[in-house]
Amino acid sequence: MNRIYLIIGLVLLLFFQVFILNNINFLGYINPYLYVLFVFVFPVSKNRFPLLFMAFLYGLLVDLFSDSGGIHAFSLLFVAYIRILLIKTIFQKSDTDLSLFKLKSESFGKVFNYVVILTVIHHFILFSLANFSFQNFSGVLLNTLFSSVFTLILYFFGTFIFSKKSQ
């Protein structure tokens, strides 16, 4: 039953990204890309292939709707690839612990670091590929900073609203 909720949530997230968030461009620097949440909620396992394949398809769907030529697919695929390394580093998990890993059961500080690092890396790659030039490197950094902050605010606000209160 949880997988059905996960699939429905990811489809709704895709539509929310494509039809609402892609139309936000505040002051030329703030473009929220909440679809990176896909990598955070995808179940963790030692076999990376399902995540990498699904991340590529998910990013490709965003690219198809955004007419962006593969930059979303590449940036999401890269973040999905380094996710296991970050889980092992930040959460101090071994290969045997990965099957039991749940983001919700970890401390807020570690989750915050994990989400911030992945989001900033994703956004930096995305804006670097979109710009594809060193002439506007300060613009890439500003886009990365402001869009990452706005995306993180949306992520943590949504997590706070949609999380179940434990008694």
From TrEMBL:
The keyword Membrane applies. It is found in: Cell membrane. The chain crosses the membrane at residues 5-20, 71-91, 111-134, 140-162. It is a multi-pass membrane protein. Coiled coil: none annotated. The keyword Transmembrane applies. Keywords: Cell membrane, Cell shape, Membrane, Transmembrane, Transmembrane helix. InterPro entries: Cell_shape_determining_MreD. Belongs to the MreD family. This is Rod shape-determining protein MreD. The gene is mreD.
